[in-house]
């Protein structure tokens, strides 16, 4: 900035700044000798009438103020603006104006600057006043960073304050700029404008970006799929899940009184009769008593078990005339096997109560164990209130008794005892006889009789039949036989009804080929979509009767098939029935099983 002293002479090395009025006056007078050296335009300057610049673009960038830089080369906001010397000015009109002392000179009309070339310029008004430049007459310095303008209002000699002359918009530009798109940055570096954005360009750019990522993910996915552990093969039944026996439907001679049921163990129920309801069962309750004793004190084969001493109460109860008892005396000792014989063959009530006290200390505690066992066996319609069945509150149904019979008949000692028509026990003077007198009939093998006025005649029985050289067990229950006047007559009626049912079942139950050798019954699924058929290795014959429908099952026997196996490898078995009536045949794969292909591994989902 140029500062004059009191005589009007420029101070320092700064060039004098003149107004356009002074320059015009010198030109019109033509008196070169009368003007100061400072008033002479620089060499080569135009002699045309001065023109006030209208916009920032009309001010030459060469005349922009310089910014002081600190040691790091960064524009410092406190740099002092320096005015150009006279010889550095391209045109007198570009000189900076000093602040006016009194008032601002009128600006030249805008119409002067709009006149075409060659038109004489109107003479500028002569004035001795300094005309300050307006903020819109000078373009800001084209520099990156904060822009500094001289603080004119501060007066001569006053240092410029940082950002004092900055407009608000200029100050805002100093804030950090947001990230720019890569294409814009590239265009700025190469001085090439970015291409116009179109949907096609956008799509191509996205393809270029995402294609490598997708390919990488596909490679990773393929590697992961190929090294994943292979799933375990599963064996699945494909044949019909049921088979119906042909021939005439089995016709059973069901009685018109009471209730009952017959079934072939492990195969199914032949049928039932009467309205099933919970009813008194009399001495049939002793089956549960024997079951609980054998559960708590198991014996098998030729074992006799513990020795049990007859207490005073059991000896006294042996003389009761209104009960079925065993002839035992106080102080005698019998083995567990012998006590079970006295319980089941002559149906001794006193022995039932003695066993209860021996096992659980009290009869009440033993009855609780009886009911707990019934619950475990699923006997939902049964309740026991005493170990002998003498009380009419001990009740059950044919279906519940068949559940108990199938469970207790698994014990060989029990099966042997209930199939005995008579027995000789040391310590007892006479032979004891079984009340079940049909045991002498072919195939009949138990289990227990029971009769009382509330219960009528009852018999839970088993019988065997030979089918294909194997023994098959038939189990039945006859309850509530009430025809006849005496208890013995009611019992005999239940025995004869049971015998008729046994003979019909033995005749009607037969076998049939359910699955033939070589028949496809299922397949092995390797878990990757490949299914290898499996075939039966022999004929499978099942026990049944006319009209019976049985279910087939295909199982791996607890051994999971392998992923790779030769043709003919046994992988499981097909079965029909359950328990003692269960029959089965091995199954093998019909063709070779090979390692899954890479494509199968790649496309697997689970």
Radius of gyration (CA) equals 60 Å
Strand content: 15-25%
Quick one: CATH class of the largest domain? Alpha Beta
What's the total number of strands? Answer: 20
Oligomer: single chain
Mean pLDDT: 78
Q: Main sheet: which strands, in order across?
A: 1-15-16-20-19-18-2
* Helix/strand structural class: alpha+beta
Q: How far do the termini sit from each other?
A: 84 Å
The shape, in one word, is elongated
User: Helix tally?
Assistant: 14
User: Architecture of the largest domain, CATH level 2?
Assistant: 3-Layer(aba) Sandwich
CATH third-level topology of the largest domain: Beta-lactamase
Low-confidence stretches: 1-50, 52-74, 76-81, 89-96, 110-130, 142-164
Q: What can you tell me about this protein's structure?
A:
With 606 residues, the protein is of the alpha+beta class. It has 4 domains: 1-177, no CATH class; 178-227, no CATH class; 234-246 and 514-603, Peptidoglycan synthesis regulatory factor (PBP3), Domain 2; 259-508, Beta-lactamase. The chain is built from 14 helices and 20 strands. The protein has helices spanning 20-29, 110-113, 168-172, 182-190, 199-227, 286-296, 312-317, 336-344, 349-360, 363-376, 398-408, 412-418, 487-508, 598-603, and strands at 234-237, 242-244, 259-264, 268-273, 279-280, 307-309, 333-335, 395-396, 422-423, 432-433, 444-452, 456-467, 470-481, 510-515, 520-525, 531-536, 540-544, 549-555, 570-576, 583-589. It has a 7-stranded antiparallel sheet with strand order 1-15-16-20-19-18-2, with no helix packed on it. A hairpin with a 2-residue loop joins strand 12 and strand 13. The longest helix is centred in the middle third of the chain and has 29 residues, at 199-227. The radius of gyration is 60 Å and the shape is elongated.
